[in-house]
Amino acid sequence: MAAILVTGLATALCSYASNYLDHSNLIMIYLASIVFVATRFGRGPSILASLLAVGEFDYFCVPPHFSFVVTDTQYFITLAVMLIVTILITTLTSEVKSQVELGKTREKRSEALRALSTDMSLLRGRDKLIAAALRHVRTFFDARVGIYLPDATGKLCEYTADPGLVKAERQPSEIALWTFQNRQMCGLGKEPFASAPSLYLPLMASQGVMGVLQVSPSSGSRSTVDPDLELLETFANQTALCIEVATLSECTQAASIQIEREELRNVLLSSVSHDLRTPLATITGASSSLVEDKFSLNESQKQELAQVILEEAEHLNNHVRNLLEMTKLESGSLTVKKKWHSIEETVGACMTRLERHLTGRQIHIQLPLDLPLVPFDEILIQQVFLNLLENAVKYTPPGSDIDIDAHVEPAGKDTAPGWIEIAIRDRGPGLKPGEEDKIFVKFYRSVATSQHMGVGLGLAICRAIIKAHGGTITAANRQGGGAEFRIKMPLDGMPPASIIELGLDNDDQAAGHTDTALSGAQTGTVAHTGE
Amino acid sequence: MIEKEPTILLVEDEQPIRRFLRVTLVSNGYKLIEAAGGQEGLMLAATEKPDLIILDLGLPDMDGLDFTRQLREWCSTPVIVLSARGQEDDKISALDAGADDYLTKPFGTGELLARLRVAFRHHDQIKPEANETSYSFGAVTIDLAKRQVFKDGIELHLTPIEYKLLTLLLRHSGRVLTHKQLLKDVWGDAYSDEHHYLRVYMGQLRHKLEDDAARPKHLITEPGVGYRLRIDHSHDD
Q1: Is any Cβ of chain B less than 8 angstroms from the Cβ of A363?
Q2: Cβ of B223 and A518 within 8 Å?
């Protein structure tokens, strides 16, 4: 149609111009129109245009006009050459055009492959790799896709499938299984499941078939897939290799976790059995003495044995407490119940609890009077303080000082308080270089402290608890000797409204006293020095 | 104390604990009745009319809350609950339901005897302020008639809420009062969850009454449970 239109136009132009131009220039107009048709519409239309052009030139321009009869024999040659030249132009032009198109298709394919391999090299983990591969197949082939992988027992199962993919098929899992076992493509016109609307490709990797890829083109016909079948197979192979690598690395990881877990269990067993048995042995020995040797023991000896039993029972209680705590923390059954608490009160409760152990110690507690309430779980944070203080008592010489202080650190440019930092410092032997972080690792015990009891859980529990509060705990050596533990916890959330604002105690005004929330007017630090 | 030796009902399913408590309590001049379960305990409480009940929270047939509720329907005998770590919620609900005090296992004899003394004292004189108007602990003296509080002989200025809180603790001195009980009594029912009020006011009270607020000797925190006013430092642990 276009060919007829264009040659018609050329003829109209020529018949108008034939009065001014000679025939050789008119032929040029026809040739130009043929080139135009050939580049725009391809081979068929341009051949038609060539024939039409020659005919029309003969009919309109060659005397006698308006007749196909050629009187001058010279024109035979003109017409023949014109026909040959136009057909030649047509052939050459359409060839160039198809070359360009082929190049474009190739480029599109290699672009798709490149995008796939980029994704495959960037992504980690089997699930993500498979999702990416399927996405590429889905968009490139305009198809619904699914994948079948063998499960832990080796049975081939549907791993993932686009919605609507399964319903369309009669027995997709059966076809997938055939593909898996025979390692051959089938479905979508290919026997033995030619009637299936999906194509099934085996995912071949270096160690054999990894699974099956199901591709169901939305056109429902094979024709949309066929030109790019090779590409589809490349996609499938690439996906298969990635699945293989991911599966292998998952296996390695699982194995190393297993080894780590077993090592941990061994360490746990040995330290638990040691740390539980030692006090038990002492208790058994001392109490059996009291029972069996009651006549040979004098009062002070009996008293000493009883004292040993009491102390060892306390140790045992601490070990069990730590073990339970750790188990709870690790299993995630421990929930952090954050409420607004006073650091002073929690430190005070620890002091009450450790009263007996702290005799003869100088404990300097320096807490600013305007310290705000802090959101934390009272029981858990008390546990942290107790563990740190017990450590300080255990690992430092009797009579040496322990310092506790706290301050608020503003968060960046904000004027609102950001963090509370609490430090517990001692004057003991301090930490070995490089030990600062290791001491928080479960069951780690400093070489310097190995003669002391304890399963090496106390600090690990502290770190787990503080972490659960969104904070950090760090250890360092203190200037002038000793160790220093710093706890940082966020002051997140809105502090509770001031009690004054709630008007609960408004009768105070008359009495001349005011109940204020830990009076903000008082600033400065009060030193509490005990014993 | 009392002429007749006081009778204690021990409701505890663990044989070794019963054995240890039997020796300790009998040697300290108490008469002991034992029950291995909650139902048996309630029955014995009705028939034997003990002066005090020690209740374990880990009974196989009944939880501490149910026991306390049922008991409190008809009897005001003091109850001390024994709890293990990890039974914090049971402990608090038993206390809120009318139990008088608690001990966490493992506990020492000293602690146990101190709790018993406090429980008996409160039961014997239900309203201490009716008999006496002046109390003192440490360097602090409280004159309930004049509503005045002194430390080292100098009058302290307490706000009404601080005073109310202090007298409430004083009325139950030696006994634990849960956060809920304190908030309800001082602020009212609607405030029973506003725990931070207590933190603020207990802090203020400590700064006024204690020598060192960070090492309290009298206004004692029972973490997760409540507060206790310790009057006699040497006996209570």
Answers
A1: yes
A2: no
Q: Quick check: is B1 in a domain?
A: no
Q: Is B161 domain-assigned?
A: yes
Calculate the alpha carbon distances from B93 to B9, B82, B99, B102, B184 in Å: 21, 13, 9, 11, 15
| Residue of B86, B196, B223 lying closest to A382 (CB–CB) | B223
Which of B106, B199, B213 faces A341 most closely, judged by CB atoms? B199
Contacts of A493 in chain B (CB under 8 A): none
A378: burial class by Cβ within 10 Å (0-12, 13-18, 19+)? buried
Do the domain assignments include residue B85?
Answer: yes
A515 to B202: CB separation less than 8 angstroms, yes or no: no
Residues B134 and B112 in one domain: no
Query: How do residues A433-475 score in pLDDT, each as one tens digit?
Result: 888 888 888 777 655 454 454 557 888 889 989 998 989 999 9
Average pLDDT, chain B: 89
Q: What is the CATH number of the domain that holds B101?
A: 3.40.50.2300
Instruction: Give the nearest partner residue to B162 out of A367, A515, A526, using CB atoms.
Output: A515
Cβ pair B215:A528 closer than 8 A: yes
Question: Sign of dihedral through CA atoms B188, B192, B197, B199?
Answer: positive
Highest mean pLDDT among A84-88, A242-246, B198-202: B198-202
Instruction: Tell me if residue A147 falls in helix, strand or coil.
Output: strand
Of all residues in chain A, the percent with pLDDT exceeding 70 is 86
Distance from CA of A394 to the nearest CA of B (A): 21
Q: State whether B139 and B210 are in the same domain.
A: yes
DSSP conformation class of A198 = S
> Quick check: pTM over 0.80?
no
* pLDDT for position A166: 60
Question: Does B214 sit within 8 Å of A365, measured CB to CB?
Answer: yes
pLDDT in tens, B114-172: 999 999 888 776 555 456 788 889 999 999 889 999 999 999 999 999 999 999 999 99
- Which of A5, A99, A13 lies closest to A57 in space, CA to CA? A13
Domain that holds residue B86: 7-124
Distance from the Cα of A344 to chain B's closest Cα (Å) equals 5
Does the predicted interface ipTM exceed a cut of 0.95?
no
Which residue in B88, B157, B202 is closest to A345 by CB distance?
B202
Assess whether pLDDT exceeds 60 at residue A375. Answer: yes
Domains of chain A: 2-101 (no CATH), 125-253 (3.30.450.40), 255-321 (1.10.287), 339-529 (3.30.565.10)
Residues of B in contact with A346 (CB under 8 A): 221, 223
H/E segment holding residue B141: strand B140-143
Q: How confident is the model at residue A54 (pLDDT cuts 50, 70, 90)?
A: confident
Q: CATH number of the domain at B177, please.
A: 1.10.10.10
Q: Taking the CA atoms of A499, A503, A504 and A509 in sequence, report the sign of the dihedral they define.
A: positive
Measured between CB atoms, does B186 come within 8 Å of chain A?
no
pLDDT grade for A82, boundaries at 50, 70 and 90: confident
Give the Cα separation of A385 and A390 in Å (integer). 8
Q: In this structure, are B111 and B157 located in the same domain?
A: no
- Same domain flag for B158 and B116: no
Q: How far apart are CA A354 and CA A363, in angstroms?
A: 12
- According to the model, what pLDDT value does residue B13 have? 92
| Look-up of token digits 């440019």 | A413
Residues 129-168 of chain B whose Cβ lies under 8 A from any Cβ of chain A = 157-162
For testing the chain A interface, which of B215, B228, B236, B237 should be mutated: the one with the most A CBs within 10 Å? B215
What is the count of structural domains for chain B? 2
Same domain, B12 and B120: yes
For A365, the closest chain B residue by CA position comes to B214
Question: Which residues of chain A does B214 touch, with a Cβ-Cβ cutoff of 8 Å?
Answer: 344, 347-348, 351, 365, 367, 528
**Which chain B residue shows the shortest CA-CA distance from A511?**
B159
